[in-house]
User: Fold this.
Amino acid sequence: MEMISQAAHAASWVLIVAGSFFLVAGALGMLRMPDVYTRMHAASVIDTLGATLLILGLAIQAGFTLVTLKLFFVLALLFFFGPVASHALAQAALYAGVEPILDEDRRNRTVPGDTANKDATPESPGKSTPTRPT
Amino acid sequence: MRTLFLAASLLAFWLALSGHYTLFLIGVGILATVLCVAAASRMHILDEEGQPTELLLSAPSYWFWLYIEIAKSAWAVTRVILHPSLPISPTFTKVRASQQTAAGQATYANSITLTPGTITTGVDGDIFTVHALLKDGADDVEAGAMDARVSKFEGTA
Assistant:
């Protein structure tokens, strides 16, 4: 019994430390990235892999209790509302006219089965402005 | 059917969060459940878009698959962040979503956003605009493996 609880303790600390590593990496990425869009990519490391590892570690600490169930509710909340918030932020930035720093702009590439944008004219990379849906 | 499912899951959620099983608290929980279900019903969101119960059975295997993808991309993005020269190649692209239902399209768009390194920035009909941190990430989305997996998940409904 003592052995098992020791092993669970060790496993939970490994998970918590690994999760914290991805939180710090994500935060460092947010500082290093050049513009709002690339910063969001760095932040998504935090609320996916970092949050999962951290919550798994905490769940092992809490054992089979209601606290563990609530921790998984928090995780589910992050996974369902996170992309909604990211999408809203990215689209708001585009509408506000924040130009993304781009290596390559393939927004005018032809997609199989695309009828909405058939007569789109190619623009110079990084210069095209997003069009509002009418 | 959807109404019953929503009521049962809301009540279960109440009981799990409460942790106190007295007559009063369970009674208030039932009242809150009835009020929420009545509101959802009045808003006409108890349909296959707002309450996609058909997808529940195939959801665990999809989530497992998605999680592996998320972990792989998170690791790739972390390596880029920690790389001294920050080798990013931001790319904007667009892809076509092959899903037939609104719930399927939402699942695909959200899965792209959840995967570190790619964000769905716009949806116009079945055309998604995707911003990728790396050119490789944009290539992967264009290749359409995730699109096919979401369509398979949706098709099992």
Residues 47 and 78 of chain B are 40 Å apart (CA to CA).
